[in-house]
Amino acid sequence: MDKKDIMSYETVELDEQENAVIILDQTKLPNEIKFLHLKNQEDMWQAIYLLQVRGAPAIGVFAAFALYLIAKDIHADTWETFYDSFHKAKEYLNSSRPTAVNLSWALNRMEKVAIENKNKPIPEMKALLLAESKKIKAEDISMCRRIGENGLTLIKDGDGILTHCNAGQLATSKYGTALAPIHLGIERGMNFRVFCDETRPLLQGARLSAFELMMDGVDTTVICDNMASQVMKNGWVNVVFVGCDRVAANGDVCNKIGTSGVAILAKHYGIPFYVLGSTSTIDMSIKSGEEIIIEQRPPEEVTDMWYKQRMVPQGVKVYNPAFDVVDHELITGIVTEYGIARPPYTESLKAIFLKHYL
Ligand code: MRU
To answer: In testing the pocket of ligand 1, which one of 141, 204, 242, 259 has its CB within 8 Å of the most ligand atoms?
Structure first.
């Protein structure tokens, strides 16, 4: 694979001829650019669980394509028999990771198409499922671009931006959310100094954000997670931009573990803390972050991964939550494709949903 511009890489793609979902394997970055061609349910489930595809919006797009391919392969004479297999596959994919709402959001959209078109011939319904999966991806690209435009109004040329995890092109279909304003700014000849928290334990900041920002020519510095306070104290950070996996109706934001610590630091140093995410990541059915299920991951990610040998004593207890919740009171604004929601979020998020979804 030739080295190309990060913007021309497809994070998630459907190959209709090959009946495969093609993903850029994020577990191999930054050392290897490898694409996986996934064709069966088990591999698709594993791809989400192992974070070969990751980032809330990318997981949603991937799940939609995956469910379409599974549906395409169901041979049934009646809708009921089709739906039985379809629903099982949907639930199976949905069990791969619990926290990012985009997974169930995309799968529910696909299921709605199957149910609403139950009286149509099965091939026709499958064509509608294909169209819906493509629509989910196209919408993701357009939402991210608009988030980028809205986020760009918050920064100026030369600003220092701190980000946590990877909420960039690699986590979406294009541009990203937290990194979208940076990519758009670069397109327009601006530059920024971006500090990427390495993001223990899976290093999405060091491996992925740094990779995509460097490829886009951004002035990028990787810091260990425990260095953020020092970098802020030095006066190098004008703003914090992070993504989100699920936003509650009161504005509590669930994102990669460590995000809440960054928000607390930003408040201490008087630095604006913005969350950037599409409305597909806002879950108006939950009142607060307390209702969010936090994924717990295997201890080896903390004890062994990336090290030549185990780095903690045998038998020690390990706590490895993949996400945490940022209290809404620490958040300066939530940047969506429909504009920037400001506190009180119970009202501003509701207003966005009333205007665009009802
Ligand atoms: O465990 P990951 O890598 O899937 O976690 C990703 C994040 O926490 C991102 O910040 C979030 O999904 C937003 S991506 C636009």
So the answer is: 204
Residues 6+ apart with CB under 8 A from 207: 29, 30
Can you read off the two tokens belonging to residue 207?
Answer: 């491996």
Res. 24 pLDDT band, cuts 50 70 90:
very high
Burial of residue 121 (CB within 10 Å: 0-12, 13-18, 19+) is: exposed
Query: Same structural domain for residues 244 and 217?
Result: yes
When pLDDT is averaged across residues 139-158 and rounded to a whole number, the result is 98
Q: Best mutation site among 29, 255, 320 for ligand 1, i.e. most ligand atoms within 8 A of its Cβ? A: 255
If asked whether residues 295 and 182 sit together in one domain, one would say yes
Domain span including residue 167: 145-357
Which residue in 159, 197, 216, 245 is the catalytic one? 245
Output the pTM of the full model.
0.97
Q: How confident is the model at residue 358 (pLDDT cuts 50, 70, 90)?
A: confident
CA–CA separation, 320 and 298 (whole Å): 7
- Spatial separation of the C-alpha atoms in residues 141 and 156, rounded to whole Å: 24
Q: How many whole angstroms from 236 Cα to the centroid of ligand 1? A: 24
Residue 333 forms beta bridges with which residues?
Answer: 274
For the chain, the domain total comes to: 2
- Alpha carbon separation from 329 to 56, 62, 252, 332, 344 (Å, rounded): 23, 33, 8, 8, 9
Q: Tell me if 325 sits within 8 A of 251, measured CB to CB.
A: no
Are the CB atoms for 217 and 187 separated by under 8 Å? Answer: no
Same domain, 308 and 228: yes
**Residue 2 annotated among the catalytic residues of the structure:** no
Give 296-323 pLDDT, tens digit per residue: 999 999 999 999 999 999 999 999 999 9
CATH of the domain at 150: 3.40.50.10470
Average pLDDT estimate for 171-180: 97
Angstrom distance (rounded) from CA 222 to CA 198: 6
> Strand, helix or coil at 210?
helix
The minimum-distance atom of ligand 1 relative to the CA of 295 is 1
Output the domain CATH number for residue 102.
1.20.120.420
At a CB cut-off of 8 Å and minimum separation 6, what does 230 contact?
Answer: none
Q: Is 201 helix (H, G, I), strand (E, B) or coil?
A: coil
